[in-house]
Each structure stands twice: as C-alpha cells, then as structure tokens.
C-alpha cells in the first residue's frame, strides 16, 4: 500500500490521499504503514486457507499487489504450514472480475469448491455418515444458489452442479500439494 500510494501516476492514488493519508509526508507514511496489509503480515504464523483473487486488467488495484501480498504471506508462514494459499488471477476481467451470469456462477462455484476443501469436508480420514450428512446440505445449498442465478436450470440439474463442485474441491488438493514448503 505504501509503495503504490507513492506513485501518483497510478489511477485513484491522489484521490486516496484524503482517505488514507499522503505517504509523501513522513508522519502520514508511518501511519499508512501501520495499517498496510502488506507491511503487517506476521512472521512464523500458520495462516488459514486463503483464496486470493486478482484481475490482470484491474485499473484500481494492480495485479502485482495481490501477487506481492501472497508471496509475502507464503514466505512469512511457519515452516510446517501446509495451508492452501492460492492466488487466482483473472486474465481478462477488471476490478469486478468478469461480467456475465455464467462467468459469475463459474467464479462462485470455484469459491464454493475452495471452501468445501478448506473446511475439511473432503478429508479422506473422515468417512463417517456424519461427514455425508454435513456435506449434503452444503452441496444442495450451493446447487440452489446456482439455480437461482441460472433460472433455466432444473432442480435436478442444480443438484448435479452442486455435486460437481466436490470434484472442483478435489482439484484444490492438487494445487495445495504444490504449495507446501519442502
């Protein structure tokens, strides 16, 4: 945040001075740094699972901001941390990602899949009936959410879409394994 606000050629930067402070003034720079997300990532902490989304064509927040933040979180995590910290970069959308109902549903499905995996609903060790009872309402709720966004989708199709989210969540396991420190 501090470095970005020091560049007045970036969009909205000078407008942000009134809200956040002017980093060119030494005392205000210190205040901004005290609440800057990038400058306040704790060291040696096992962070919770995170799915960070950025857009390559975002004119308000540079894609490098999210990339730098994720890199620092990963570097500052404890050495035994194996949590998913995933950066998803949309290569075509802007500040509000991509438009269109189908793309929004696809994004929501990916977020749901990440959440299913992050809360451990797919852990292999938990094969109990309780797990199945716990997962089914969540999957059904996601299917209903999709059917509301896609009104032409039948209830049966929305349930099927909800169940397909489980497969997406399993894909996050592959991503997670590539992010674990060796």
From TrEMBL:
<protein>
    <recommendedName>
        <fullName>Prolyl endopeptidase</fullName>
        <ecNumber>3.4.21.-</ecNumber>
    </recommendedName>
</protein>
<comment type="function">
    <text>Serine peptidase whose precise substrate specificity remains unclear. Does not cleave peptides after a arginine or lysine residue. Regulates trans-Golgi network morphology and sorting by regulating the membrane binding of the AP-1 complex. May play a role in the regulation of synaptic vesicle exocytosis.</text>
</comment>
<keyword id="KW-0645">Protease</keyword>
<dbReference type="GO" id="GO:0006508">
    <property type="term" value="P:proteolysis"/>
</dbReference>
<dbReference type="InterPro" id="IPR029058">
    <property type="entry name" value="AB_hydrolase_fold"/>
</dbReference>
<dbReference type="Pfam" id="PF00326">
    <property type="entry name" value="Peptidase_S9"/>
</dbReference>
<dbReference type="InterPro" id="IPR001375">
    <property type="entry name" value="Peptidase_S9_cat"/>
</dbReference>
<comment type="similarity">
    <text>Belongs to the peptidase S9A family.</text>
</comment>
<keyword id="KW-0378">Hydrolase</keyword>
<dbReference type="InterPro" id="IPR051543">
    <property type="entry name" value="Serine_Peptidase_S9A"/>
</dbReference>
<feature type="domain" description="Peptidase S9 prolyl oligopeptidase catalytic">
    <location>
        <begin position="2"/>
        <end position="120"/>
    </location>
</feature>
<dbReference type="InterPro" id="IPR002470">
    <property type="entry name" value="Peptidase_S9A"/>
</dbReference>
<keyword id="KW-0720">Serine protease</keyword>
<dbReference type="GO" id="GO:0004252">
    <property type="term" value="F:serine-type endopeptidase activity"/>
</dbReference>
<dbReference type="GO" id="GO:0009507">
    <property type="term" value="C:chloroplast"/>
</dbReference>
